[in-house]
Amino acid sequence: MRTSTMILRGVARNAALNVRASAMANASPMFLRASAAAVCRSQVPSRFSGVRFYADEANKETQADANAGAESKSSEGEAKKEEDNANLTEEQKTIKDLQAKLDAKTKEASELKDRLLRSIADFRNLQEVTKKDVQKAKDFALQKFAKDLLESVDNFGHALNAFKPETVEKSQEISDLYTGVQMTKDVFEKTLRKHGIKKLDPLGETFDPNKHEATFEIPQPDKEPGTVFHVQQVGYTLNDRVIRPAKVGIVKDPEN
């Protein structure tokens, strides 16, 4: 602002001199105005370069003053704090120190409590996952062994199918043999059921690809398409998991 005022004063002074010179020479007003404009154009650029320089310097000084003010405030705060501490009695200083320690311990206790709760939650989740894994391993530990036993169950069925009804009725020895094989088969299947192994006999049910294996299709007008009408080999499940699908024949849709 000061520099701009000086520029305007210089311009006015030069214009006044030109006016007086023109007046003495009886010059026209248009000439006077042109002379004043020329003076302004010659003086303003050089003056404004000085303005830019002084503005940069002013910004630097302002920033330095701000930094100095912040430092002074910080030092004043520390000095005030020291002064306050100096004005406290020994008992008040002790109480203040204890309060600071209490706040620090309270914060530490809060953090430790949060960590404890998180650890407990993680441990409980681990317990649940471990429990499920153990139960799963327990439920399906017999899967391989059960599959091997299924062939023996099938052989009991093949042996019973080999007996002809008329032969069983005619011979007491054959009838007793048939009865013994049937009882052995029943006991064997009962033992399998005790350990979670159940027979899957889907005769008359709707075909389920998750439990059944279709070996052939035959159209039958008296039955719904997709119905199991023949069981070639029964299936088995272990704790509701299919360990061997049943091989079946299903009714074919005539339109397909």
From TrEMBL:
Region (Disordered), start-end ranges: 62-91
Pfam families cross-referenced by the UniProt entry: GrpE
A GO biological-process term: protein import into mitochondrial matrix
Any one GO molecular-function label of the UniProt entry: protein-folding chaperone binding
Keyword Lipid biosynthesis: no
Compartment list: Mitochondrion matrix
GO cellular component: PAM complex, Tim23 associated import motor
Predominant location category: mitochondrion
Keywords of the record: Chaperone, Mitochondrion, Transit peptide
Biased composition (Basic and acidic residues): 73-91
Classification via CDD domains: GrpE
HAMAP family xref list: GrpE
Record's function text: Essential component of the PAM complex, a complex required for the translocation of transit peptide-containing proteins from the inner membrane into the mitochondrial matrix in an ATP-dependent manner.
Family of this protein: Belongs to the GrpE family.
Name of the protein in its database record: GrpE protein homolog
Species in which this protein is naturally found: Kluyveromyces marxianus (strain DMKU3-1042 / BCC 29191 / NBRC 104275) (Yeast)
